[in-house]
Write a structure and sequence with these properties.
heterodimer; A: 987 residues; alpha+beta; 7-stranded mixed β-sheet; 53 strands; B: 92 residues; Folate-binding fold; 4-stranded antiparallel β-sheet; 6 strands; globular; binds zinc ion
């Protein structure tokens, strides 16, 4: 016989049937079902195959701890593997498929693994690693990969959206069972800001399947009334389908809300899941307790279930486990199930109690076999009989379902997430939460409190204590009147069971059985952390929620000590698995990272730019024209045009920092290695910024626009870093200086206008006199444009080596000014050029970028030695720059390099070798930092950092590309390939 | 997942808004000698317990802060503006 739906009872809506399928087979459930309760109602007891041995597995629990009933649900891009059927709400059209079986769930070839089980015991992985390596690669790994497994993720992109959110409260209550509801009510009525989260679809926890009467109502009606009152309070937020999965620093809790995981077609305007970070002044864990399995032979056979889960299926979902049920218990809780089964008219074949006598008050009809244990179950794909050992003999009893009640373990995971360890309580036969936690308390079954009345009382009292700590006054409310059967007291745990036959599972999900634990102890892995890794007990996706305490009890028994001495392994977030979607939130696809576009982006786009991503920026790389087939053709044209006519390049991505204050000059003098104190107003200067260890950090030009006003530019890549660094210097190092900083990168668009005809173009729109006499090289000032229509900043600086200017205009005017310039420049051959041409031009001129400033160079390495001030008392990097190693003669220093054969070329990153030297590390002379084809020179040119480079100009070397085994004979030369005397700059 | 830092200017803010530089050290004078500078630039203690660190409220007020943090418990104690801390140090 199988499980089935009872004619009446439960909180399911019998008027609302839901169609679903399992392995393609159509089935019917009810609104209010979980997938698990619906499967049971359809008599589907076999739902999966186990991880290693492919044993038939059924539904063991009715909640988050389920190790067996993992299925794949959904279709196509919404396929979700490893879904726990016990927490998945049923919806119309749900498609579920079993996992880890082939060709079918009923006939699974992998079950043959059971025959290989002697090789799959504890330490299997470690031991096979020791075997001959070729066997591992060819035999074991493919075998393990095929044999062991969970569901398969889809390769299609997730179509759904996710959100992240913060929430703040006075009191966070985790768990809306009797204790949690009472606590939230007490705090809510007192006016505190309360958040109550519960992982279930409706609040109530164990009240949803308890038969107690509270204030004359059923327990579930009481839960409904309590939640209705909470929902009516504006100061209370009740969040169902929300799992608090972690407790973090600052009393912040992580929680995931399954907004639409119970919907077949999620509404597109809502996320499917929402990740919460809840900042709680105080928190109360009312997370309940987990019932422990008992470890006997075949305790994993479908039809064997936790006693409390059986009560939940019976009372909440109206599902009977079978026609003839037995209960195996070591404490009183098994008897509560017996009463409920009897009340529902389901035969209880036997209560097998490991204790000498049944509880004195028990008057039920079922046969009680005291001083007895179940040593094994029998059956094929579900249980058909149990073998009971009692009074020195064995008795086989035919059953179609078996409940096991091994005692309760408080659910204390969150309380242990911040490093405190739980402790073993002999009296409660359980690990309890660490004591005296800051801003976190425990109530109800999570604190080993037993009985609804006591849980309600404790939840309320803990909330009152928290309110008083928060300084919120509260009136103690009258506690409800609870009529319940006598509550079960904790009893001595039953770890090892005598006379076991067959595999007795400790960790169901990872297929760890009793003998594995014994083997671990015998082989010296008895320490709890070692045993966990050696046997893999507790390492599956359920993180050992059902198995850990049993494993500890069995280890303790094997070593003859108390579980207190064994201790637990470390509890870590997450309490239950959290999807990558929820953790990623909105940061996927287009929103993966911000996109930064220059104010001249649209101008560049309409001029045909090809863009390249550099960090977050999109920069215009080149501007192809009709007939150009390769990027090189475009870049060569742009370079030549700058050298012959004039070009316009967007340099807005450079970092721009406004520096104000009476001490601004002194400040710059300390952050740059060269002198800035006496920079005249109206002048720009190239500045070199060092790190405190003496190496170059960044470079750029800084202009003095007023006595106490400077305008700094940084490289694009280091804009943010330099700003942080300057703020550190101004605030933490020299707060006594009067200096203020503001980032202005996004406020100014900046254009380089370079080429011999640059002045001819600019004269047409700049109102001021920009003749070389009035506005010489390195001049910098504010100018007016277009007859006074706009004010701009104007700098005569050059990266290309040509007559060049940079014009900065407020970002909003960028495109119009660029358009005006393009029009004005048409007669002079003005063309836009991109970052590729910019790069070629600067290499031709021997200017460095972060390709050269790569963290290993000091100013002298780049030929800037004379720039470093010898007179300044102090600047960042001054002292460390004096170190012996930084003055060594054979340092790598900047040179130019060009191939001997003008048709040959080489790549950046290639190494320099002496002529005829072998390509070895000892023979390495340095490397190419930048290279490009130079239209001006007519061949590939490069900049390189070479040992004693400047002393070796004219030396023939070999440029070696180790990746491609290419050797190019080359010659070291001056790094300035164009206009070494700087005549063009000054025209 | 989460930590909150009480910025003296902005209040309690998530740690993602901050950038940590490391231990609060005082920058030696230029003539303090090689050893003092090597210590300042390269050598760091790895204390168990209270640690004073520079934190930058990068995505907030952009002030540098001195945060006193317990490396064992992660408890964030005193949190002060770095400029105020430096000036208070110098003044007496
Ligand atoms: Zn701040």
């Amino acid at each position: 016989m199988t499980s089935y739906r009872l004619a009446t009872g439960g909180l399911v809506n019998r008027a609302a049937p839901l169609a679903f399928s399992f392995d393609g087979k159509p089935m019917a459930g009810l609104e209010g079902d979980t997938l698990a309760s619906a499967l049971l109602a359809n008599g589907q007891m076999l739902v999966g195959r186990s991880f290693k041995y492919h044993r038939p597995r059924g539904i063991l629990t009715a909640g988050a701890s389920e190790p067996n009933a993992l299925v794949t649900i959904g279709r196509r891009e919404r396929t979700e593997p490893n879904t726990r059927a016990t927490v998945q709400e049923l919806y119309e059209g749900l498609e579920a498929r079993s996992q880890n079986r082939w060709p079918s769930l009923d006939f699974d070839v992998g079950a043959l693994n059971g025959l290989l089980s002697p090789f799959l015991g504890a330490g299997f992985y470690y031991k096979t690693f020791m075997w001959p390596a070729p066997l591992w690669e060819k035999l074991y790994e493919p075998f393990i990969r095929r044999a062991a497994g969970l569901g398969k993720a889809t390769h299609e992109a997730d179509p759904d959206s996710y959100e992240k959110s913060w929430a703040h409260c006075d009191l966070l209550v985790v768990g809306a069972g009797p204790a949690g509801l009472a606590a939230a009510l007490t705090a809510g009525r007192a006016g505190a800001r309360v958040i109550l989260v519960d992982e279930g679809s409706m609040p109530g926890g164990s009240l949803l399947f308890d038969t107690a009467m509270i204030d004359g109502m059923t327990a579930s009606d009481f839960a409904r009334e309590a939640s209705a009152e909470l929902q009516s309070m504006p100061n209370v937020r009740l969040m169902t389908r929300t799992t608090a999965f972690g407790w973090y620093d600052g009393n912040v809790f992580g929680a995931v809300e399954r907004v639409q995981k119970h919907a077949c077609d999620p509404a597109s305007h809502l996320p499917v899941e929402r990740l919460w970070r809840i900042v709680a002044k105080q928190a109360l864990l009312a997370t309940g307790a987990e019932e422990r399995p008992l470890v006997f032979g075949g305790n994993d056979r479908p039809g064997v279930m936790m006693a409390s889960a059986m009560r939940a299926y019976l009372n909440r979902y109206g599902v009977a486990p079978g026609k003839a049920t037995a209960i195996f218990t070591c404490n009183d809780s098994g008897y509560r199930l017996a009463r409920d089964l009897e009340a529902a008219g389901i035969e209880v074949t036997a209560i097998v109690d490991s204790r000498p006598t049944a509880p004195p008050g028990y008057r039920g009809r079922p046969r009680v076999i005291a001083n007895a244990v179940v040593c094994q179950t029998k059956g094929n794909k579900s249980v058909s009989a149990i073998e009971v050992l009692h009074d020195g003999r064995s008795e086989t009893i035919a059953v179609d379902a078996l409940a096991m009640a091994g005692g309760f373990s408080p659910i204390i995971h969150l309380a242990c997430h911040r490093g405190s360890r739980p402790f073993w309580s002999e009296e409660n036969a359980a690990f309890l939460a660490p004591q005296d936690l800051k801003d976190l308390r425990i109530a109800g079954a999570a604190a080993a409190t037993v009985g609804i009345a006591a849980c309600i009382q404790e939840g309320s009292a803990q909330a009152a204590a928290i309110l008083s700590e928060l300084g919120i006054s509260c009136r103690p409310a009258a506690l409800p009147n609870v009529e319940a059967e006598e509550e079960s007291r904790p009893a001595k745990p039953l770890w090892s069971i005598p006379g076991i036959k067959g595999k007795a599972f400790v960790d169901f999900q990872n297929d760890v059985h009793l003998k594995d634990i014994g083997l671990a102890v015998r082989e010296g892995y008895g320490h709890v952390e070692l045993a966990k890794r050696y046997t893999t007990s507790g390492m599956a996706t359920d993180q050992g929620k059902l198995s850990n305490v049993n494993a500890i009890g069995l280890l303790a028994e094997a070593r003859g000590v108390s579980p207190a001495e064994i201790g637990t392994t470390t509890f870590r977030p997450f309490y239950t698995p959290v999807s990558f979607g929820a953790l990623t939130g909105a940061h996927s696809g287009y929103h993966f990272q911000p996109v930064r576009k220059s104010p001249l982006h649209d101008w560049a786009a309409k001029n045909g730019a090809i863009f390249v991503e550099t960090g977050l920026w999109y920069r215009s790389a080149w501007f192809p024209r009709g007939g150009e087939k390769t990027w090189r053709e475009s870049v060569d044209r742009e370079v030549v045009n700058v050298r012959q006519n004039v070009g316009l390049c967007d340099v807005s991505t450079l970092g721009k920092i406004e520096i104000f204050g009476a001490d601004a000059a002194e400040f710059l003098n300390r952050v740059y290695c060269n002198a800035f104190l006496k920079l005249p107003v109206g002048k720009a200067r190239y500045g070199l910024m060092l790190r405190e260890d003496g190496f170059i950090y960044d470079d750029g030009t800084t202009s003095r626009l007023g006595e106490g006003h400077f305008f700094m530019t940084t490289t694009t890549a280091y804009a943010a870093g330099v700003m942080n660094h300057l703020e550190f210097c101004a605030q933490a190092l020299w707060p006594e200086l009067d200096v203020r900083l503001a980032s202005a990168t996004d406020q100014w668009a900046q254009m380089a206008i370079a080429g011999p005809k640059a002045r001819l173009v600019l004269e047409k729109i700049v109102d001021d006199d920009i003749s070389s006499a009035a506005f010489p090289f390195l001049a910098a000032k504010e100018v007016s444009l277009c007859g006074g229509k706009l004010h701009a900043r104007f700098f005569r600086i050059s990266f290309s080596g040509e007559l060049a200017y940079e014009l900065a205009v407020p970002a909003g005017y960028a495109e119009s000014i660029a358009d005006i310039l393009m029009n004005a420049g048409a007669e002079h051959g003005l063309q836009p050029y991109g970052t590729e041409a910019l790069g070629v031009l600067r290499i031709e001129k021997g200017h460095v970028t972060h390709s050269e400033i790569n963290g290993t160079v000091i100013p002298d390495d780049l030929g800037f030695g004379k720039m470093v001030s010898a007179t300044k008392a102090d600047f960042i990097g001054k002292v460390m720059l004096e170190r012996e190693g930084l003055k060594a003669a054979d340092r790598l220093r900047l040179v130019g390099v060009r191939p001997l054969d003008p048709t040959a070329s080489f790549k950046t990153g290639s190494h320099i070798l002496e002529k005829n030297a072998a390509a070895t590390l000892e023979n390495d002379q340095g490397y190419v930092t930048s290279s490009a084809f130079s239209p001006h020179i007519g061949c590939t040119i490069g900049l390189a950092l070479v040992k004693r480079g400047p002393e070796r100009l004219g030396e023939e070397v070999v440029v070696w590309n180790g990746l491609k085994s290419e050797y190019a004979p080359a010659i070291l030369c001056d790094p300035i390939f164009v206009d070494p005397t700087n005549e063009r700059l000054h025209v | 997942m989460a930590s909150l830092i009480s910025c003296p200017h902005c209040g309690a803010r998530p740690k993602e808004e901050f950038t940590i530089k490391g231990a609060v050290l005082s920058r030696p004078a230029a003539d303090a000698g090689h050893q003092a500078w090597t210590d300042y630039v390269y050598l760091r203690d790895n204390p168990r317990g209270t640690h004073r660190e520079y934190w930058h409220h990068t995505s907030g007020c952009r002030r540098w802060l001195v945060v006193t943090r317990d490396t064992v418990s992660h408890e964030v104690g005193f949190c002060q503006d770095a400029a105020a801390a430096k000036l208070a140090e110098v003044r007496p």
